[in-house]
Amino acid sequence: MIDFEMPTPVSRQVQFIGMLGEQVMRPRARYYDDHEGERPVEYTSLIWQTVRAQGGRNFSADTSERLDRDGRPRPRIGYLMLAHMVEALSWGDAGMYLATPGAGLGGAAVDATGTPEQKERFLRRFGEGEPKWSAMAMTEPHAGSDTAAIRTRARLSDDGREWILDGEKIFVTSGAMAARDSAGFVVVWATLDPSAGRAAIKPFVVEAGTPGMLVTKLEHKHGIRASDTAAIIFQHCRIPRENLLGSEEISDGRSSGGKGFAGAMRTFDATRPLVAASAIGIARASLEFTITYLRQRGVTIRYDVPLHRQTAIERDLRQMEAQHRAAWLLVLRAVTAMDAGQDNALEASMSKVKAGQVATFIAQKAVELLGPEGYSCTLLLEKWMRDARINDIYEGTGQINRLIVARRLLGYSSRELR
Ligand SMILES: Cc1cc2nc3c(=O)[nH]c(=O)nc-3n(C[C@H](O)[C@H](O)[C@H](O)COP(=O)(O)OP(=O)(O)OC[C@H]3O[C@@H](n4cnc5c(N)ncnc54)[C@H](O)[C@@H]3O)c2cc1C
Asked: What pTM was computed for the model?
């Protein structure tokens, strides 16, 4: 059952982040959009205090069991809390939010695929010291949606003590910060045997600064420009054997406890609702701004007037509001299932499809409703329109997530429906 009340610890966090969004992120949003590649240090050093205090878990929720005063387990709210935080940060600025230091996407992959010892070894660092980042590198020049086609190779060294990685990864979010500018790491997906398909694809932790891991390019992007997006090559990159996450066994994933490639899918179950939450943050920013702007010019929504007697603008605004609410409810459904330890693959993809589409629709409509001012760079609306677009691309495009929804609803396998 979903409880629509925001739990007190969540509302306290959201209040704090709302302030950060208003006072730190919004005033600098245009600057970092214009200066792509500069790190938003005012934001990253401030948010690091919060992230560090929570053990660095900005994408991987704390799901440890807590008991109430009577010794009964309290409902887990780790992912619910994260969704609210991501939404509120993205309301402030989605690009800066993506530059948040912490365990991030790489941490989510460690969480989904690592052994308890590996989780301790790789994640503990995010609760201490200076800001640090992690990243997850799956996409390659010839393998995006078709993740099973990746070619980056991992071979054992002659003495069997190290893995040697060779290959090229592109479009890695926070890739430069994770690979070279901090004490973080990149989780790299590579194959042990290209002839064995998905079963041989495994995640490897490559520590920042490891020789053979080279950042070759920073993307110049349409939106989310405060976030670094890197191309990274691996040339004879040697890492300790223990840095393969989970089991070395080449299997279908189920027999190795859901690790390996199945672990990549489990990572997405956790992160897709958070991408959706980020989209909702941009949608809310655009919607609130538009409503306030129009109200100041005498345009209000008359909720008590039937649709056929409303103006076109009123109808547009009501549709924007309804779509925004519907998409947010799907996000809450997906994170609540995650917190309850239920299989949420269907809800995760549904929330991402809907929120990705809704954010683009709302931001674009907002630009349209405000006319030339909406299109002008004096307001942030045109930027939010550009920022919104990414949510329908990374972590599985809209089309791919629709396929996942269809497979789940109709009972088809990925071989039967692709
Ligand atoms: C800013 C940014 C940040 C990113 N960050 C990361 C990251 O941190 N880590 C990472 O590994 N990757 C990252 N990516 C890569 C992203 O996940 C991929 O771009 C995405 O998965 C799509 O892959 P592709 O670009 O190869 O497109 P393709 O797979 O070539 O798809 C092209 C088009 O065809 C459609 N299509 C493909 N297959 C099908 C199908 N079976 N049915 C219907 N339509 C289909 C797609 O939906 C898309 O519209 C990032 C990308 C961007 C732009």
From this structure: 0.94
CA–centroid distance, 289 to ligand 1, in Å, is 31
| Interior/surface letters 269-291, b for 16+ CB within 10 angstroms, e for the rest | bbbbbbbbbbbbbbbbbbbebbb
CB of 144 sitting under 6 A from ligand 1: yes
Give the single-character DSSP code of 300.
-
The domain 132-243 having CATH identifier 3.30.420.140: the answer here is no
Catalytic status, residue 321 = no
Which residue's CA is minimally distant from atom 6 of ligand 1?
Answer: 172
Query: Could you give the 3-state DSSP secondary structure of residue 190?
Result: strand
- For ligand 1, the distance from its centroid to the CA atom of residue 394, given in whole angstroms, is 6
Judge if the beta carbon of residue 397 lies within 6 A of ligand 1: yes
Domain boundaries, the chain: 8-109, 132-243, 260-410
Mean pLDDT of the chain: 91
CB-ligand 1 contact for 418 (6 Å cutoff): yes
Least Cα distance to 102 among 42, 176, 178 occurs for: 178
Amino acid residing at 374: G
State residue 82 phi and psi, 5-degree precision: -60, -45
User: In this model, does residue 258 exceed pLDDT 60?
Assistant: no
Q: Which architecture, in CATH terms, is 8-109?
A: Orthogonal Bundle (1.10)
- pLDDT band for position 78 (cuts 50, 70, 90): confident
Residue 22 has pLDDT above 70, yes or no: yes
Q: Domain 260-410 belongs to what topology?
A: Butyryl-CoA Dehydrogenase, subunit A; domain 3 (1.20.140)
Cβ neighbours of residue 202 closer than 8 Å, sequence gap 6 or more: 154, 189, 190, 191, 192, 244, 245, 246, 248, 260, 261
Amino acid at 376: S
